[in-house]
Amino acid sequence: MEHADFTRSLREQYDALRALIAAADLSAPVPTCPGWTVEVLARHVARTHAWSIRAALTPPDTDSPPRPQEGPEDWSELLAWWDERFSELVRVLETEDPSRPSWTFVGPRPLTFWARRQLHETAVHRLDGEHAARAGDVPPLLFPSDLAADGVDEYLTTMLTRQHMNKPNGLSGRVVLHAADASRSWLLRLVPGEAPEVGALDGAAIDEDATVAGTADSLYRLVWDRPSHAVVTGRGDLVRALPRP
After folding, report:
1. Count of alpha carbons within 13 angstroms of residue 175, beta-carbon side
2. DSSP per residue, the chain
3. Do 130 and 171 belong together in one domain?
4. Are 172 and 123 within one domain?
5. What is the pTM of this model?
6. Boundaries of domain holding 185
7. Is residue 9 part of a domain?
8. Cα 107 vs. chain centroid, distance in angstroms?
9. d(Cα 133, Cα 241) in Å, to the nearest integer?
10. pLDDT truncated to tens, each residue of the chain (245 aa)?
């Protein structure tokens, strides 16, 4: 996916999440985020969107952006505030040079990092909203295969690195992930004390410890620890132990 794909898809996922929030009981539990209600979910995403504006515009040599704004306590004011912050976020992502260096939690990266990150932040929480609204009746194919495959790639290449920076990896093994409908495969190598290494399969025989196979959508859900129809063979304990932010 390219920068324009990130921003377009971000708008789509936001619209879907926003519609779910508008129709929901605010006190309803979010089963995929234990302890959260729909209102907590909405406030979290709104605050994250507001903070990401600051992060995207923060120079790469800065320690970290200011803490995120909390937003109004009043619910109706919060929704208007969230809409304004989201519009501002999209404006920044669409008008700034996507290659401009920016601060991120994994070191300096181009500004497009934040378009990708907020796309997947919003999409995964849209999925949480679906679970809150539909209970166990969430469609198995919710996300386009290119979006879902990119979400798997972002988790493997970025979010695992972030977790290793905070707490060094203690896992050992090789995990192969296949997303058949997206024609994408990844090989994840884990060595205790070392940053996770991710690469594409080159067709050579791999002595993997675990294999995860399914649609890109199912893999996307699995790596973010959401209910999934992906099939895991081999060391399921290794897959379950992968750190989630």
Report:
1. 24
2. --HHHHHHHHHHHHHHHHHHHHHS-TT-B-TTSTT-BHHHHHHHHHHHHHHHHHHHHS-TTSS-PPPPP---SSHHHHHHHHHHHHHHHHHHHHHS-TTSEE--BTB-EETHHHHHHHHHHHHHHHHHHHHHHHTT---S--S-HHHHHHHHHHIIIIIHHHHHHHS-----EEEEEEEGGGTEEEEEEE-TTS--EEE---SS----SEEEEE-HHHHHHHHTT-----EEEE-HHHHHTS---
3. no
4. no
5. 0.94
6. 167-241
7. yes
8. 18
9. 28
10. 999 999 999 999 999 999 999 999 999 999 999 999 999 999 999 999 999 999 999 999 988 888 877 899 999 899 999 999 999 999 999 999 999 999 999 999 999 999 999 999 999 999 999 999 998 789 999 999 999 999 999 999 999 988 888 888 888 999 999 999 999 999 999 999 888 899 877 665 568 899 999 999 999 999 999 999 999 999 999 998 888 87
Cβ neighbours of residue 26 under 8 Å, at least 6 residues apart? 37, 38, 39, 42, 75
Position of tokens 């999925």? 127
